[in-house]
Amino acid sequence: MGLLKRLLRMRETGLILIILALFVVMSFASPYFLTWVNMRAMAMAFAVEGIVVVGMTILLVSGGIDLSVGSVTALAMVIAGLLFLNGVDPWTASLISIAACTAIGAGMGFFVTRVGLHHFIVSLAVMVIARGACLLGTGGRPLGLFTLPPEFKFIGQGSIGVIPVVIVIFVAVVVTFDFMLRRTTIFRKVFYTGSNEKAAAYSGIRTKKVVFLTTTLCSALCGVAGIIYMARFGSAQPTFGIGMELNVIAAAVIGGASLSGGTGTIFGAILGAILLSVVSSSLALLDVSVYWQDIIRGSILLAAVSIDHYLNKRRG
Fold first, then answer.
1. Domain assignment present for 293
2. In angstroms, rounded to a whole number, what is the distance separating the alpha carbons of residues 93 and 77?
3. Is residue 204 part of a domain?
4. How far apart are CA 104 and CA 55, in angstroms?
5. What is the pLDDT of residues 89-122, one digit of tens each?
6. Could you list the residue range(s) of the whole structural domain that residue 155 is in?
7. Dihedral-angle region of residue 141 (phi above 0 means left; psi in -120 to 50 means alpha; beta otherwise)
């Protein structure tokens, strides 16, 4: 009974029950919801974005936030795409692109930890700069990468048996970082830093280094996601990822990450991403207007932030 009570108090358990309830309701509301095609489409929709959710969750736990994730993901596609069109093999182009995104994260970390600016302002500026760089590099037009080799497209379009490679990569990223966040000493310092940075610093934790690394990691994972998107679509879209930051932050907060830092799990954040994906798929199948879909998603984000604020007040 004690274990059952603990499970029921866990935020992840509530999310699982909500997701299961939505599955039951939608199985009656639409005959297409439980089809393999729709299940695969939902999984593909949240899997790559889920990689970005992992980075955002770790950053939120450390007390930061990144509004530039959508723009940096698009920039990863554009950098790799332009390099490929100029004769660089796609694997090398991808590594250079991911390294560039990592450098962007390191730059943001520098402005936050050394200059003393807030994550919100720095990432907002980078969001605008990165999007401008995407439009400048492409002239505002998508880059058609029709000659990408099949072995490269495989990471975005291929399957191992019936399981898409994208899902395999996603699961590997989630399992790796969830284990590290729960079990490794260096990632435990992320929680201490986010809970009380001054107290963590007094206890000997190099909090600025922790913040710098989590900011860098978030952008690096955006780079990885951008490369997978490029392989999946066979193109580089300069306008891709607009509004992604809202979905990613909403998923993390719904899953239990606090905007005040110090709390959150990757497993919970991924459940939040799944919930949002199920909601989006349900609205589309029920033929709800795209305008209403935006209103509903915004309302979900507002509700999640309100719950987070209420829980923080209770903890205080």
1. no
2. 10
3. yes
4. 14
5. 999 999 999 999 999 999 999 999 999 999 999 9
6. 45-239
7. beta
Domain assignment of residue 162, yes or no = yes
Place of tokens 């951008």: 226
Question: Which residues partner with 159 through β-bridges?
Answer: 164
Cα separation, 257 vs 176, whole angstroms: 18
Written as six digits, the tokens of 114 are 């050394």
Instruction: Report the C-alpha gap between 187 and 190 in whole angstroms.
Output: 5
Q: What is the pLDDT of residue 181?
A: 87
Cβ neighbors of 207 (< 8 A, separation 6 or more) are: 193, 197, 200, 201
SS3 (DSSP) at 184: coil
As a whole number of angstroms, the distance between CA 49 and CA 169 comes to 12
The residue-averaged pLDDT of 59-77 equals: 95
Q: How many structural domains compose the chain?
A: 1
Average pLDDT, the chain: 88
User: What is the rounded CA–CA span in Å between residue 178 and residue 205?
Assistant: 21
H-helix segments, 30-164: 36-61, 69-85, 90-110, 119-138, 150-157
Q: Is residue 18 part of a domain?
A: no
Q: What is the pTM assigned to this prediction?
A: 0.90
113: alpha, beta or left, given left = phi > 0 and alpha = psi -120 to 50?
A: alpha
Query: Rounded to the nearest 5°, which phi and psi values hold at 163?
Result: -95, 120
The SS3 of residue 221 is helix
Q: Give yes or no for a contact between 261 and 60, defined as CB atoms under 8 angstroms apart.
A: yes
